[in-house]
Amino acid sequence: MKMFSYIAKKLEELRSSCSCLFTWFHLRGNRFLFELYFLFISSLGFLILHSLDGRTTSLTPRNLDLFFTSVSAATVSSMSTVEMEVFSNTQLIIMTIMMFIGGEVFTSMVAHYIRTFYIYVSLEDRNKFDDRDTQCSFSDKIELKDINILEFGNSKSSNFYSDIDLKLKSIKFLGTVVLFYLLFVHLLGVVSVLIYLNVVTSAKNILKHNGLHSLTFSIFTIVSTFANCGFVPTNENMLVFRTNSGLLLILSVQVLLGNTLYPPALRFSIWAIGKFVKKSETRYLLKNSKGIEYDHLLSYLHSFLLLVTVLVFIMVQFLLFSSLEWSSESLSGMNVYQKLVGILFQTVNTRHTGESIVDLSTISSALLVLFVLMMYLPPCTSFLPISEESSEQGSKRVRKIMENLIFSQQIYLVIFVILVCITERKQMVDDPLNFNVLNIVVEVVR
Question: How many Cα neighbours within 13 Å face the side chain of 398?
Fold first, then answer.
């Protein structure tokens, strides 16, 4: 009995030490853990890709190229030094898995699950601390009272424990919603692409000509598009599908749902689920989005303004692209409907997927400057940032809104560079030595 008691005591000490270590990593080592995570999956992906045979033995990528491609897939940066058609079907599947687990929605979901587990462990430890005064053995002690997620007040009223229970259930339910959203959008996209490929023979013939399986192409492209990676298993990217408007529309929806419109779509999903099940949890999530501390769960007003911002950016790009490139060689051979859908697809992909139906080197410099600006802006950029402080006076709130409406100096510089590129586009073609984007930027800034 003494031996079992001794073992139980040592296990409890080990558990306490692990809990303290986990607490330290949660509060101070999140960024370090994610760097290790991407380094691990990049290295593992490289080893697996290196061990598999490519599509042809005549053209084998170098190890450095394979590692660079693996890093690009894991970090969803869509940069590659080799043509995509050199990879075999199995290698494409491995890259699909890497893009899936490296996407923003997946990594945020994993972080949320880890944080949920941490909350439950911390709450259990705090209950034990209430019974007996114990402390972590680390020199840098971390008190559980500093954990914001468990702060509900100093006094334990009759509703205190019910509030804790509701908040914990809501946090756990949010993880389930994100998982459901991730799987449902991917499944819907893959099924839609498969149906399109079976109905439209021109798109299916392109895959046969390039030696690609329909299922592999559908899964790979949907995962890459949703994760905003931009990899397409064809050497020409989406250029060969520029007349397949239905496919472009499907992928445009995936781009938005996986990037800029993910917060509004997530909030809408919670609201829709609340109409049928889990009414208390969904109400809590919708009313206390800031207290949940999930970065992609925004308030109603913030989500609405983000939606408006995304639509305005797309409209501006669409109008500028249409006015400058409608009769250009990049859109030649396309009818009116195909041009409209193609331009919409191109403008949606500027933030931040990278799939393209045109050769970017052939479009006007004004569009390139605008695309660079769109790529620079974070996905959560809102045209009218809102203040969450309800204590502000009316005049102060109005003044802040007016300040937000006034563009920064950098935005003014970009606008004038675009205007100069538009007005001098003929000179930029006839005299590229003196009239180029770099010279215009220097002159405008100076």
Answer: 3
